[in-house]
Amino acid sequence: MSDQEGQTPRPLQDKAAGPEGRKPLVLVVDDMPDNTYVLRLFLEENGYEVMEATDAHQALTLARERKPDIAICDVIMPVMLGWELCQKLKLTCAPKYLPVIMLTSKSAELDEIRSYESSADAHFTKPPNIPALVEAIDRLLRAHARTAD
């Protein structure tokens, strides 16, 4: 089942904060700069700090350097598919747990299954329902904050 259906996002004050009370840091990875730009606008409007990568190698470098709180990855990208990137991001950020949300323009159930098989925490079809995406981010950050305590 997809995380497409969601509720209205919680108010900003209810969001899980990043370390030291800072805004949660979201890594957005998509080979289409227009897609990362649009996601950045919506996520910043909803209280997140955002960093963008347009390929897997850039994403892995940013993940090592900045340690994001969560990542949103496109599935279909050149050089490395998002499913492989998902697994590498989780290894790169270990021992810190990194929730990863996969985005794809395909609505095939097999793609959703493959996302979860690659250790993704959620899967959305493009264009994502923004309130549902924000709710999924909040839910994953809160769940991780509870297990990290």
Give a structural overview.
- The protein is of the alpha/beta class and about 150 residues long.
- The chain has one domain (about 20-149): Rossmann fold (3-Layer(aba) Sandwich).
- Helix content is about 45%, strand content about 15%.
- The chain has 5 helices and 5 strands; from the N terminus they run E-H-E-H-E-H-E-H-E-H.
- A 5-stranded parallel beta sheet has the order 2-1-3-4-5, sandwiched between helices.
- Helix 4 (about 110-115) links the parallel strand 4 and strand 5.
- Helix 2 (about 55-65) packs parallel to helix 3.
- The termini are far apart.
- The relative contact order is 0.20.
Write a concise synopsis of the structure shown.
By secondary structure, this protein is α/β, with parallel strands linked by helices. It is built from five helices and five strands.
Largest sheet: 5 strands, parallel
What is the CATH architecture annotation? 3-Layer(aba) Sandwich
Taking all Cα atoms into account, the compactness measure Rg is: 14 Å
Count of β-strands: 5
Average pLDDT for all residues:
87
Give the count of helical stretches: 5
CATH class: Alpha Beta
Q: Which percent range fits the helix content?
A: 40-55%
Apparent shape: globular
What count of domains describes the coordinates? 1
The largest sheet has its strands arranged as 2-1-3-4-5
The SSE order reads EHEHEHEHEH
CATH superfamily: Response regulator
Question: Which fold does the CATH topology refer to?
Answer: Rossmann fold
Low-confidence stretches: 1-13
Could you give the distance between the termini? 29 Å
Derived from helix and strand composition plus strand pairing, the structural class reads: alpha/beta
In terms of DSSP E residues, the strand content is: 15-25%
